[in-house]
Amino acid sequence: MSQDHKLSIKQLYTYFKEALKGEENNFTTGSIRKAIFMLSIPMILEMLMESIFAIVDIAFVSQVSTNAVATIGLTESVVTLVYAVAIGVSMAATAMVARRIGEKDPDGASKVAVQAIFLGVFIASIVSVIGIIYPKEILGLMGGEPELI
Questions:
Q1: What pTM was estimated for this model as a whole?
Q2: 83 to each of 14, 120, 122, 124, how far by Cα in Å?
Q3: Angle CA(142)–CA(143)–CA(145) in degrees, nearest 5?
Q4: Which of 111, 112, 110, 104 is nearest to 29 (CA)?
Q5: For residues 60 and 38, is the Cβ–Cβ distance under 8 A?
Q6: Rounded distance, CA 72 to CA 114, Å?
Q7: pLDDT per residue as tens digits for the range 40-82
Q8: Is-contact 59 127, C-beta < 8 A?
Q9: How far, in Å, CA of 36 to CA of 23, rounded?
């Protein structure tokens, strides 16, 4: 890699601060490395916060019993599966909106975004109904012992 394409720590820190500000950026022009880095920061922080949430959850529940900790482990597994579906839908929606933005079609991008929101609400409704009707069966499929469920 040539010297021109390497990012310094100072540049990375500047990009990091810029990504946290949440200001509008045009990623259709300029460095693809910068765009990927800045778009990845919110995703990395979200996953970090989810992990911290799970750790804090387990820390508090561990004061109750070991079965409670095992139950938290099972439910985190189910939540991870739901996140996988949500991330897949999110990636598809992001790609479609990005394509419309790249085509300089903001109206098309807004229509795609609205459709993605409706799709997300629809999927969330189905997952919620299944979770409400079959919670014990889902935890059983995840390997939960009957005394945990």
A1: 0.66
A2: 30, 12, 15, 11
A3: 130
A4: 104
A5: no
A6: 34
A7: 898 899 889 988 988 898 899 999 988 888 888 888 888 888 9
A8: no
A9: 16
